[in-house]
Task: structure prediction
Amino acid sequence: MLADGDSVALVKDLKVKGAGQSLKEGTVIKSIRLTDNPDEIDCRHDAIKGLVLRTEFIRRR
Result:
């Protein structure tokens, strides 16, 4: 179960719409925030602010 403030890692490479770059498999995302939608998390990456990820592409670290 995920909670606010957890760190997660990506399980596959993802292209980020509007950012012009992709996030590689294994990239660690720190300090996630849960949203009202249980299938999505809100997070920030060094180069991408306001990132929303689907939970099917992450695993808890």
User: Anything to note?
Assistant: The chain has no helices and eight strands. Residues 5 and 31 are 4 Å apart (CA to CA).
